[in-house]
Amino acid sequence: MSATIPTQRHGLPLLATPETCAGRTYIVTGANSGLGLEAARHLANAGATKVILAVRNITAGEKAKDGIETSTGKTGVAEIWSLDLASYDSVKAFAQRVKTKLDRIDAVVENAGVALSQRVEAEGHVLPVTVNVLSTLLLAVLILPKMRDSARRHGTIHRLVFVTSVTGFDCQEAWRNIHEAPLAKMDSEDMNMMELYPLTKLMLTMAVRHLAALTPVDRAGVVINLVCPGLCKTAMSRNAPAEVQENVAEFVAKCGRTAEDGSRTLLHGAVAGIESHGCFLYSCQNGE
What we know:
By secondary structure, the chain is an alpha/beta fold. The protein has helices at 18-21, 34-45, 58-72, 88-101, 127-154, 172-178, 182-186, 193-214, 217-220, 242-255, 259-271, and strands at 25-29, 50-55, 78-82, 107-110, 121-122, 125-126, 158-163, 222-228, 280-282, 285-286. The protein has a single domain, classed as 3-Layer(aba) Sandwich (Rossmann fold), CATH 3.40.50.720. The chain has eleven helices and ten strands. The model is unreliable at 1-5 (pLDDT under 50).
């Protein structure tokens, strides 16, 4: 699969409906803006009982919650919970709160991610590695037992959705340079930061496929899948150099999806069937 997106579908199907979402509980990370915010808004509008907006910036989260309530007319559904993926302690505290405070978890959409052009570290690794790979997987592993128990008690299938990127499939040369010791080499001072984002998404994709293989649906009651939202009009490239931002903006203007349209891919993952387990989903269709 190539990361080149000369054209992509627009007007994707909205699969978050009252039939699929009413009375259910959802967690969306990075839900204060962009794709996460639009996905949370759709879930609330579709009749979810509870939508947890897991955010690093509480002020921004409260603003997002107010916007959801105003646009949907649904109050008391969206909740703001603190989650900073740059901190393992924050991830552990969030997972513990999930275990003790939520009766059920119908889907977790791990949407939060970061792309940087300057070197920043967190928890002993360069920040995109910590956020996009290690903390994302840590949260999944800590929450999975609760999701398994919830699925069993409620007699339903739950979903664990990881937002990744097709760009991860177009970094073969960069991967060959680091594959023998990926964490050490991505953390090295010689690492090209502009190559790091797709590499982290490739690592996440490989790790999630392995996790899905270790956790069959008939044993855990949880569908684990990956979604790529495609090229969207969001602020993901805001930390890139000016020249890169200009190039991305030009490309996005030609074929980018709106954040609302792109969020529908996340929602597809959150309601997709058992056949999506371990799969890479794109444009609201099952992939490989």
